[in-house]
Design a protein that fits this description.
One of its GO terms (biological process) is negative regulation of DNA-templated transcription. GO terms for molecular function: DNA binding; DNA-binding transcription factor activity. It holds the Pfam family IclR_C. It is a single chain. The chain starts with a helix and ends with a helix. Strand 1 and strand 2 form a beta hairpin. Strands 5-4-3-8-7-6 form a 6-stranded antiparallel β-sheet, with helices on both faces. The chain has 2 domains: about 60 residues, Orthogonal Bundle (Arc Repressor Mutant, subunit A), CATH 1.10.10; about 170 residues, Beta-Lactamase. With about 240 residues, it is α+β, with helices and mostly antiparallel strands. The chain has 7 helices and 8 strands; from the N terminus they run H-H-H-E-E-H-E-E-E-H-H-E-E-E-H. The relative contact order is 0.11. About 45% of the residues lie in helices and about 20% in strands.
Length: about 240
């Protein structure tokens, strides 16, 4: 079992540092070079990594990791679509499905509102964790230190203590909201889709800021929280 854990740790470290050599990986992981070398050999034979070239052997991740991620993402999309459609029908607004990736959430699916006034975000766009409803919904379930918070608008929460308090409130009520914190013309509420080890995605209802007064925000928050819970249960 420990050999498997070591190999997975080495794979993650290669992905973070690529191209990376044995010595660099060993120092980063705190493992003996011989252990790292064995893991690299196993990962190479299994097709997960390949030599990056150069005088000293350095390693990089192959497309196999991306293929697995895509298959996982497609499964998430398939499960999410009926939940997203029901949420769109109940609200008449745009529904977003995002997944955490590093210090951001990435939009992987959306269902658009039929209303003429809308805000369209392209698939693949990255939104900051601390300045978006989807991001805060995810961040509230992560044990991650909060520091260096850039401002995007006048309402972006940039004080670490204030953000920690906001995330505690998100965790308590079950959903996060965005009051023009990334773009002043966008309002949203979002809830995390949880797996066994934490958040795997987030669902949101997104509208022009003028279309989400406080009373509606609370109503939408309850709806998106239930939708995210339904999706979490379907994936269990």
């Amino acid at each position: 079992m420990q050999n498997v854990i070591n190999a997975l740790r080495v794979l993650e470290e290669v992905a973070a540092r690529q191209p990376a050599g044995v010595g660099e990986l060993a120092r980063g992981l705190g493992l003996p070079k011989s252990t790292v070398q064995r893991s690299l050999r196993t990962l190479h034979e299994a097709g997960w990594i390949r030599p990056a070239g150069g005088e000293v052997t350095r390693w990089q991740v192959t497309s196999k990791a991306l293929q697995v991620a895509r298959r996982t993402e497609l499964g998430l999309r398939d499960a999410a679509m009926p939940v997203m459609e029901e949420l769109r029908q109940r609200t008449g607004e745009t529904i977003h499905l995002m997944v955490p990736e590093g210090d951001a959430v990435v939009l992987i699916e959306r269902l658009e509102t039929d209303k003429p006034l809308r805000i369209v975000l392209p698939l693949g766009i990255r939104l900051p964790l601390h300045a978006s409803a989807n991001g805060k919904a995810v961040l509230a379930h992560l044990a991650r230190p909060v520091a260096e918070l850039p401002a995007y608008t006048e309402t972006t929460i940039t004080d670490p203590a204030a953000l920690r308090a906001e995330l505690a409130a998100v965790h308590t009520r079950g959903y996060a909201d965005n009051r023009g914190e990334w773009r002043s013309d966008i309002a949203a509420v979002a809830a995390a889709v949880l797996g066994p080890d934490g958040p795997i995605a987030s669902l949101s209802i997104s509208t022009p800021a003028s279309r989400m007064p406080d009373a509606l925000r609370a109503e939408y928050g309850k709806l998106v929280t239930q939708a995210a819970r339904t999706l979490s249960e379907s994936l269990a």
